[in-house]
UniProtKB/TrEMBL annotation:
Residue stretches making up the M23ase beta-sheet core domain: 182-282
Organism annotation: Noviluteimonas lactosilytica
Protein name as catalogued: M23 family metallopeptidase
Record domain DUF4124: where: 14-63
InterPro entries assigned to the protein according to its UniProt record, in alphabetical order: Cell_wall_metabolism_enzyme, DUF4124, Dup_hybrid_motif, M23ase_b-sheet_dom
Keyword field: Signal
Protein origin, superkingdom: Bacteria
Amino acid sequence: MRAHVRWLAVACVALACVAMGAHAGKVYRWVDKNGVVHYGDRPPPDAKLEGQQVRVIPVRAEPGAMARLRLEREEGMSLAFADNAIAGPVEVLLKFTKSVNTRGEPELPARATVPANGSVLLARLMPVRAGAGEFGLAMEVVPGDPRATPDDIVYGLPIPREKLRVEQGFNGRFSHTDTQNQYAIDFRAAQGTPVLAARAGTVMQVESDFDKAGLDLEKYGGRANYVRVLHDDGTMALYAHLREEGVLVRVGQRVRTGQRIGLSGNTGFTSGPHLHFAVQVNRGMKLVSIPFRMTGVTDRP
């Protein structure tokens, strides 16, 4: 995300703000018992009781931003804040994309860890000297606290034991070759198979409105329905490729080991229905997967 500001004078600052992307997947249309047409982002709770006919209108959905760059005016300067929009910590990196007669306190690039749903002042931006100036900003965001220290525990199974079948493990050559997925496990799972929390934690992020799949990495590599769960040690479990509307938990919800959190599917970069499971941490503004132990799958990393 980027913001551009021009200094009009030393004490007169133009402000810019990068807003979060909209996130809506469906619009519901229904006619009530009086013949009045209604539209909403969720179906009416009394639709069955009143015999209302509800029609679903698909809408292209884009994932919501994890954090928002916000600029506020203060005499002679601008204050750059990071607003965290998810139920878990994120690390942000603020940097100049352009800087004319402008400096930051602290100097940019600047990093900060922003707590769940919290805000942090990243830098004060001000002219170096009297006169016109201009600057542009970009903010990178990575989920997770870089100080996380993983506990040595054994994870439960993310799908029912009777359906257990591993298709790709650690360092799998098909798609487990990058740092985010190196230590992931893919479980074969027919669409609609229950997905279970392999460890207790807090639901940090969800995506449930995507309905496409394929082997075009550029087109589908960055999209899939998923649940990200934050554990007490700061690690994060990723449950990916869930089916459309296959998320059964909400952001901020506390889940227990073995609790049903979703339904498997075939969304994103995939050759067929399966569940992609990984344990990840943030290391140096980079999301990386880490080895883990799981009952009945791997006894040691």
